[in-house]
Target: Phosphonate metabolism protein
Amino acid sequence: MAVREAGVTEYRRYAVYDPGPAALAAFGAEWLGWDPLRGCETRGLGRALAATPRRYGFHATIKAPFRLAPGCSPAALVAGFERLCAGLAPVAAEPGLQLRRIAGVLALLFKPQPAAVTALAAEVVRGLDGFRAPLTPEDRARRRPELLTAAQRALLDRWGYPWVMEEFRYHMTLTGALSAAEEAEARQRLQPLLAGLLPQPHPITALALMGEDAEGRFHLLHQAELRG
Model:
């Protein structure tokens, strides 16, 4: 269970999400079956296709899950996150999101990814790195460094995650791994549901600091507007 310290919930890991525009975030929660912003289960319209991403909730990861460094408190992390977001400018990303296949799953992503999105994520990774506990040998081994490129291994060792900086790819996952037949079914279901929910350009105006509970589900800890 999560506990509370100085009025701030403490979780086993933390992450930074872009939850997306309100209407898209609401759809994603209904599709996956878990609403991380409200911390509750939903109908799960795509539950059979989305078991793997369900516990994370609908989002784009901006900073991957990390444990707090020794001596850092959740309250200090929230304060640092708020300060960081106050200095970051919102992004209007063009072209907007598209439904595409990535690493065997269906997700919403940019094609091509705007440089401003990559830069925003890099600033968040850098700005909160002081709150991140160093990787343990077990953490590093779970990332399968033998399968990474030399550049990705260097990013893993420096930032605790290999898909950051120039390797960062913004995506909002909607399914688990799919066969060709399952992908066709998922596309047929998703395309009409997504109609009207993908604004052009795609706005990134606020970020969400998330916490992972003991069951592996993510909850909203603090949301901050980008005010730079």
Remarks:
- The mean pLDDT is 93.
- The first helix runs from residue 22 to 32.
